[in-house]
Amino acid sequence: MQTRELQGGCLCGATRYRVSGAVDNLCCCHCRSCRLASGAPFVAWGTFENAHFSLTGVPLAERKSSEKVVRGFCGSCGTSLIHVHAGRQGQHAAESATLDEPETLAPETHI
Asked: How many domains is the chain partitioned into structurally?
């Protein structure tokens, strides 16, 4: 587990977010849902407590992509930013590629 204060946002800049505190579950997910949502072969994530996650700008559009996952994305440009998993109540997973300094959260595992 790592502790960070980071910022990120979407392609068009309309939606920004800030995360702080402990980050865990640093992973690259190869599931079909993540691949389709991002248009990439895998997605790198880091998980933060809800209390340490804040949005500014355009509110997230949301899509329930499976029985247990709701994905948040920019309603203006469509950039995938977060997901919330029913099995991890109280946490948001931020897509590492959308961080201003994505290299600060190196994935620790592949799932």
From this structure: 1
